Amino acid sequence: MLSTNIRSLIRLVLRVVLWAILLVFAAIVLVPVLLMATRAPALVLPSNETREQIYNLACSKGLSGGTLAERELIWRRRSLVELSHPIRVVLASQPYDIPWGYYASRPNPTSFHCPQRKQANLQYWIPSLDMPEAEIIYSGATNRPKERARPNPGPDESVVEAFWIVGYDDDRSHGRRSIEWLKGARQLDGRSPGSVEEHGLWHTVVPIGSLQMTYWYKFGPGEDVVIECYAPFRRCEGNVDLKDLRMYARLSFDKDAIPQHQVIVDGLRTLLSRWRTSN
């Protein structure tokens, strides 16, 4: 009698173990199959788009770049865009067609036909005003990146980046007001103690906490310029009010280029005049 009960118990345990094995198998094999069956259809990515098709893509947020296929498609599309391809932007109610290669962050093709931009971020060499071969944000030395056509940039050559250029009516950051604030708060009038005139600019050193900030500045009927340089950094930031164009720009450039400040500002004007369009 006892042995019969033991055999029954063993059979029960074996059944439980067998069912457990079957349930584990179902979890490993059947559940993924069911999930794949209910998942939305996979995104079919184009593989043979022409340049003209890329130029005419509908406005969209673009791809996330989360998969290898998406990253390859983004790269392929961007590799087909000509550096000279114009991207429309409206600054101070005036349209400009800026070549794609001059953008510091070159727009993705899926944004070419989106509503017109009202600000631009640019990059250009001085003194030549050429476009850099690549986006300088990907360069290890953004002030003087080595390029195929410029393997050894000269001491007077460097890249200027315009973080943004906006028209007066579209200036969400109130950049012109920041120039006026700096002018008063830092006493940038050429008469404050320690102010010295050099390179056609006034400059003065102002302690900001534990750091020393050097301001280079000038104010005039055509433009206001305030350049800020923190002592530890190689690049400075410039605030420029282009009064004749009704635009404000925030620039970044090499500290050694301060004597070329007029080349920087006049170069920006020259480029904008090239890109201005009437339609």
**Shape, please?**
elongated
- Alpha carbon gap, first and last residue: 102 Å
Structural class: alpha+beta
Return residue spans where pLDDT drops below 50 for at least 5 consecutive residues. Answer: none
Strand order of the largest sheet: 3-4-10-9-8-7-6-5
Count, helices: 5
Please report which band the strand proportion falls in: under 5%, 5-15%, 15-25%, 25-35%, 35-45% or over 45%. 25-35%
Q: What's the rounded overall pLDDT mean?
A: 82
Radius of gyration: 30 Å
- Count all strands and give the number: 10
Largest β sheet strand count, sense and barrel closure:
8 strands, antiparallel
Helix percent band: 25-40%
Based on the model shown, name its key terms.
279 residues, 5 helices, elongated, eight-stranded antiparallel sheet, two-stranded antiparallel ribbon, 27% strand, single chain, alpha+beta
